[in-house]
Amino acid sequence: MKADVLFHQFKGMFRVARARMGALRPGSAAYDRQLAMELKHYRKVFGTGEGGKLMEPAPSAWDETLTRTAERIAAKSGRDMDAHVLALLREKPGGRMLSLGCGAGGVELYYARESPGAEIVGIDINPEILELGRKQAAKEDLAVRFERADLNTDALPEAAFDLVFCHASLHHLLNLERVMAQIRRTLRPGGRVIAIDVMARNGYRLWPETKRIANDLFRGLPAQFRLNHTGYRDARLDSAVWAPDTRAEGMECLRSEEIPGLLRASFQEEVFVGSHAFARRFFDTMYGPNYDLNRPLDRALFEWLWLLDCHYLDTGALKPETFFGIYVNTAGT
After folding, report:
1. Among residues 221, 176, 219, which one has the least CA distance to residue 197?
2. Which residue range(s) make up the domain with 256?
3. Is the per-residue pLDDT at 17 higher than 60?
4. Would the pLDDT of 5 be above 70?
């Protein structure tokens, strides 16, 4: 292993150790440093100004994975995520939705187009990315407002929303107990939380049983499917699934494994669908670019891995790394 990679790993291990000693708290130097890395990363992902994107770019294999995930959610809950959200937004005139960690707002803008009677507020900590959504909302005259807030520290308005939407945002947050209390505060009685998020092991590490199976599968793949596009400075071939502790830098998966339990403790769970035992690892931006689903081998491997993933989930042999859930605010009802 090259020296620069070893240095990066040891630097990360040191930062994780410091965070575990309590240094990572809002207002601390460690928090500000890791938040700055998070902001920089997503400015790079989305871009800014005229070249900015409203949705995070993804390889076609990940897009197909998301389509299959939506079908899985619909099969188990009666609707996919978008249909659940739109049904609630259309339920009564003037329905209000708050989206936590909305990024550039591509999803929220879509919901506004499809439910013109609703009002949507998106909040995020990254002002430059929020500006992308703000400009598009103004261009289309959509009822979406974008506001900057740090969800670890800022207060939400009381009894202001019928729906709180969490789209891959909770796993970036540190003060989850406070966040749950703020969601309860801002939801009207009977209001709902719809969340789709990561529930992998904290730090986006692999669970031991998942690590064993995923690596056995990964090592059996032809070399062209093991090229890592995001873990190093240059694309490199991996012999095992790349799974460092992401708490070393940025805010990724700080407390991800705790999210479903905290939602259940704070609200009444109405729907829960788990997905991605290991499929997320194989098909997202890290290894997903290796798959061209128009090629027979690539398509066959994709189908095989997806069916295995569903099998391991449905038999309970492996834990899901992502979930979709709907939760009801029973306070005051």
Report:
1. 176
2. 3-328
3. no
4. no
Say yes or no to pLDDT of 281 above 50: yes
Give the global pTM. 0.91
Residue 73 lies in a domain: yes
Burial class (CB in 10 A: 0-12, 13-18, 19+), 22: exposed
Residue 333 maps to a domain: no
- As separate numbers, helices (DSSP H) first and strands (DSSP E) second, the chain gives 11, 9
To 10 degrees, the CA torsion angle through 28, 41, 166, 33? 0
Is 97 within a domain?
A: yes
Report yes or no: 279 and 306 within 8 Å, Cβ to Cβ: yes
More confident site: 248 or 23: 248
Q: Which amino acid does the sequence have at 155?
A: A
pLDDT recorded at residue 22: 56
Burial class for 72, CB neighbours closer than 10 Å (0-12, 13-18, 19+): buried
Whole-number Å distance between alpha carbons of 226 and 237: 6
- Phi and psi of 19, rounded to 5°? -65, -40
Question: Residue 80: CA atoms inside 13 Å, Cβ hemisphere, count?
Answer: 8
Average pLDDT for 135-151: 97
What CATH number is associated with residue 34?
3.40.50.150
DSSP string, 277-316: SSHHHHHSTTTGGG--TTSHHHHHHHHHHHHHHHHHHHTT
Spatial distance between the Cα atoms of 69 and 62, rounded to a whole number of angstroms = 10
pLDDT, tens digit, 9 for 90 and up, residues 24-68: 899 899 999 999 999 998 999 999 888 899 999 999 999 999 999
Provide the domain count of the chain: 1
Residue 111 lies inside a defined structural domain of this protein:
yes
pLDDT number for residue 92: 84
